[in-house]
Amino acid sequence: MQVGYQSIYAARLLHAFLNLDAWRDAVELAETIIPTIAEIASARTLTLLGLAAQQGEQITSAPSGLRDALHHMCMAISDDPYKL
Question: What is the largest CA-CA distance in the chain?
Fold first, then answer.
């Protein structure tokens, strides 16, 4: 389980990348965040990640690979962490 501020900083950085149209940086960051989502204990961080991912999915000018990664992030956030 991840604790501390690293994940919340990553969520805020993802949001900033999306606002700046920094697509390459956003997809690279998203791809590093996705495998760690099940380990994030902070509801605030998960909420920020979810909001950023949902916002990014709606940006039609974003590359499809980024939108796909953000969709995958939304799905990972909504998964039940206790599911076997």
Answer: 38
Please tell me the distance from the alpha carbon of residue 54 to that of residue 57, in angstroms, as a whole number.
5
Q: What is the DSSP letter of 22?
A: -
Confidence of residue 6 (pLDDT cuts 50, 70, 90): confident
Q: How many CB atoms lie within 10 A of CB 80?
A: 7
Q: Provide the total of helices (H) and of strands (E) in the chain, helices listed first.
A: 4, 0
Instruction: Say how far residue 2 (Cα) sits from the centre of its chain.
Output: 15
Q: What are phi and psi of 22, to 5 degrees?
A: -90, 70
Pairwise CA distance, residues 17 & 36, whole Å? 19
Q: Taking 90 as the threshold, does the pLDDT of residue 2 lie above it?
A: no
pTM over 0.85: yes
- Please report, for the chain, the start and end positions of each structural domain, with discontinuous segments joined by +: 6-78
